[in-house]
Amino acid sequence: MVNNKNILIIKHGSTGDIFMSFNVLKSIINHNPNITICSTKIGLKTFRLLNCDFEEMVDQRGNTIETLKVLLKIKKKNFDYVIDLQNSTRSSLYLLFVKLFTNSQSNGTSVFCTRRYKSENSREHVITGLNKQINLINISKIKNKIHQPISNFNQVIIVPGSSKSGLSKRWPFDNYLKVIEYLITKKIKCYIIGGSDENDIKKIIPKNKYIINLINNSPWEDVKKIALKSKVTISNDTSAMHFISNLNLPIIAIMKDNIYSYRNCPLSENSLIIKNKNIKDITPKKVINAVSKYI
């Protein structure tokens, strides 16, 4: 249906949300390479990690004048198809504009879409829903490449933090320290990654030859190189979890037992989700027992 067409992809959201859309976007590009992505500056920078060719349309959210400029660009371009991978109230308004002022066909969950996807399962995984959505326009998902960790590297990745807006997703760092202590007894290197929001954790990470503290010093390209050599990643619900899951590498995800543990959990091969309604009630022993299966 969308062969040889000029397609606009709308995708904003957090970095983790964008990572969850990666393979869906690959499926679209594999079907039709003539793609423009409408996102924030940070979003577009994240999409460049795909190493795929696409046109960029910057959308500075929160600025009404800039938003109007984006809508006028969409009208001028008159895309053949607009695919909404964001599926938010904001992007629904974009699709209303598309319906009223362009000849574009559209795909998404909005009532204004010409090919609308309606999920009947509130616990449907985000990625599953997006794949079903694009299937409505005859785009089949591509199989995610399975990366096999290089077994002779005795290392794991630890992701103990979260963004400042997601502090409730953090498993207590004292518990992570107990897991790290166990790994050190097995002479396994622990690469601890995170961003500037985890500087509070960076200060209390002990110094040890088996601990590599990369908090606020772990760009995604480096994370990928480390992940491909690691036996497993142990992580809170973070953008790093979604990034490594997209590489189809095993993850032990420590999550709160709520709707997001169903909709956002890692789907990569051999991953394991450990969840509890109160994340603090997850014991270090339970996580250590899980880790022992990978090392």
Write a short abstract of this structure:
The chain is an alpha/beta fold and 295 residues long. 36% of the residues lie in helices and 18% in strands. The chain is elongated and about 65 Å long.
Q: What is the distance, rounded to the nearest whole angstrom, between the alpha carbons of the first and last residues?
A: 47 Å
Structural class: alpha/beta
Widest sheet, order of strands: 3-2-1-4-5-6
What gyration radius follows from the Cα positions, in whole Å?
Answer: 20 Å
Order of helices and strands: EHHEHEHEHEEHEHEHEHEHEHEH
Largest sheet: 6 strands, parallel
Layout of secondary structure:
Layout: E1 7-10, H1 15-20, H2 22-31, E2 35-39, H3 41-47, E3 55-58, H4 64-77, E4 81-84, H5 89-101, E5 105-108, E6 115-116, H6 126-135, E7 155-159, H7 173-185, E8 189-194, H8 199-202, E9 211-215, H9 220-227, E10 233-235, H10 239-246, E11 251-256, H11 259-263, E12 272-276, H12 284-292
Parallel strand pairs: 1-2, 1-4, 2-3, 4-5, 5-6, 7-8, 7-10, 8-9, 10-11, 11-12
Helix pairs in contact: 7-12
